[in-house]
Design brief:
By secondary structure, this protein is mainly α. It has 15 helices and no strands.
Length: about 425
Amino acid sequence: MEHITLLLAIVVVTALVFDFTNGFHDTANAMATTISTGALKPKTAVAMSAVLNLVGAFLSVEVAKTISGGIINEEGIRTEVIFAALVGAILWNLLTWLLGLPSSSSHALFGGLIGAAVMSAGWSAVNGSTIVTKVLIPAVAAPLVAGLAAMAATKLTYKIKANPEARATAKGYRAGQIASAGLVSLAHGTNDAQKTMGIITLALVTQGVVAPGSNPPMWVIVSAGMAIALGTYLGGWRIIRTMGKGLTDLQPQQGFAAQTSAATVILASSHLGFSLSTTQSCSGAVMGAGLGRKGGVVRWSTATRMFVAWGLTLPAAGLVGAGAEFLTKQGPWGIGATAAVLIGGSAVIWALSRRQPVDHTNVTADDLDGDDTGSGAPGVVTTAIAAVTPPPAGSVAAVADEDLKTTIPSPVPTDPAAPPAPAAAV
C-alpha cells in the first residue's frame, strides 16, 4: 500500500510538472502578438496571462471529464501508465520549446497517453471514436476555422477605417488587442488547465480514490490552475518569438483580429468538451491575419517547420510514452529508470537552451545569432535574387563611368622642376 501511495504522489507531481511546461509552452498563444505589436510590455503581458489562466481553470470541467473518462478505457489501466504518458508529453514539450516551435501540448499529452495505454493493455484500451471526434477532427478544423475567421476579420477591419494607420485608430486597436489577449488567456485556462485536472483525476480513479466519471476534486483544480499560471508567468520566450515575429509581421489591427478569432474558437470548444489544441488555433489565426492584410505575408519556411512538428507530436510522444511504459512494467527499478530518463533529458534540454538564451529583453529583437525566425535578415533566396538583378536600363554606362571616377583618380598636376616621386613598392 505504501508503494501505491508513493507512486500516486509521483504521478500527481509529474502531472503538475507537465502543467507547468504547458503554461510556459503556450504563453505565446495569448501574448505573442500583443508583445510583438508593442501593445504590452513582455513581463506585463505574461503576468496578465498567468492571472487569467488561473481564473479560467475554475470556469469549466468539461474538457477534464473528456480526458479522465473518454480517451482511454479506465478499467484495467495501471497508475504507471499515467506516469509513462506524462514522461512522453513533458519531453516532447521541452524539445519543441528548445526549437522554438509552437507545437501542441494537448496532443503531446494525448500521444503519450495513447502510446502508454497501448503498450500496457493493447489497442482495446483506446477509445478510437472519442479520439477521432474530440481530438483529431478538432485538430484539423480548429486552425482552419480560426485562420479563416482571422483573415475575414482582418480584411473587414482594414475596409472599415479609411486611415487605419492613424495614431488614434492604432491606439484603439492596441486596447482591443489587450482585451482580446486577456480573453485568449481565459480561454486557455478553461481548456488546457483542465487537461492536467483530467490526468490527475484519471490517476485517482486507477487507485480507487474517486469513482469513475467523477468531477476533479477541488484540490486538483486549484493545484492545476496554480501550476499552469506559474509556467505562464515565466514565459516561453522562444515560442513567443516564433509566433510574434517568425510567422508574419503583425500590426495592431491584425493582432486584434487574430486573438479574437482564436478566443472564440477555444471557448466554443471548451463548452462542447472538445480538447483541441490552443496552439494550433492561435497559430492558424496568426497566419490568417497575416494573409488578410494587403501586402501581408506568411513566412512559410517557419510555418512548414511548425506543421511538421504538429504532425509528429502525437506519434513522437506516443513512442516515448510506450517506451516509458515498457520500463515501468519491469517493476520499481523500471519506474526509477523512467524518472531518471525524465530528469536527465530535461536537464540536457535546459543546458542546450542556455547556449542562446531568449528572454523578455530580446524576445522582440529582429534577429539573433543563428536564429532564422526574426524578420530583420533577408533569406538566402532574397539575397541571391538581389545579387543577380540587373541595373535599370540606360544606366549601365553612367554607373560604369561613376565607378571609374571613384576608383581610378586622375593624376595630380606636379611642378615640372620638382624631382620625380619614388616608385611605390609593389
